[in-house]
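Q: Convert this sequence to structure tokens.
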Amino acid sequence: MTTATAVTAASTGNAGARVLRVLLTQRIALLAVLIVAVVITFFVQDAGGYLTAPYDFDYMSASLINAVPLAMLGLAELLVILSGRGGIDLSVGAIVSLAGMIFGFAYGEWGWPLWAAIVLTALFGALLGAVNGFLVSYIGFPALIATLATYYAYKSLAIVINNQEPISTPPIQKLFSISESVELPLFGQYVPDVPLGIFTFLLPTVVAVWLLLARTTYGRRLYAIGTNDVAARWSGLPVRDTRFKAYVYAGVLSGLVAVVTVGQFASARPDAGVSGNGMALPAITIAVLGGVAITGGIGRVSGVVLATLLIVWLNAGILLAFVGNEGSQYQLLALGAVLVFAALLNGLTNRRYGGTA
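A:
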């Protein structure tokens, strides 16, 4: 091997190592690459006639309706996982169910104005989240046990509060309009219509959570206690109060998701957030895939949003790859594989580079 060849090989190896380091440490870059890979894969399969329906930009845009509740609950999990000490919330789906029933009563039966019913539902979600936060932060229960217990309690209350019956009064049915797609101003003739919930619920939530974490004292405290709550306590930070508020905020987001699901189903269903595999596990998967360290203290809003897009568009493609409802079964397999992949990736990154950015 000549000197020039050796230098070229070394340069290529160094470049490859740098690319690998960027992909492992910059979760945003990795997720962007994975999203492009997934979309191209299904485009190629569509062109080859292997899918049961077209996988195009219109279909991708329509599938974003599923991104609204998933991303919002992923952000809820981001907040509680950031708080450290094994922070997790298994009850978010049950909160969606119970808060959705409260919204159904307020708006569908009691005749409250829409804005007042939404505020009530968000506050009720905050109350349910406060129960979780109190058990974890002040009583000292492990988050896994505390939120699993409240999951069962909230799920049961959602079922019995209206004798297992959904609320589908005319005002509730009219809310289906929030699930419709709208044309983007100025760009409508160039891009597909986008679900209205993206603008009315998801984008405001993303901005609010980003501001909370990146521009407030509370956000800095949350990262600090998640990284090392002992050091944070010795520094005079209110560790318990900060962790408690994370669960309260997660409850608020879950309450807002309840409103979204009522609109999507045109009905307040007692099983809205817990039917099938529920909403909690996909939300946790999205958070971990988005680069949120399960040990706490590491995680970004942008990672959760991109992870949601990856999961939604992957699931949308899987549905078209199989006949009937067989695709929904493979979605579960894909979700499990993605969770294992994300956990392994986080572990590898922590060992080699000390975490993601």
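The mean pLDDT is 89.
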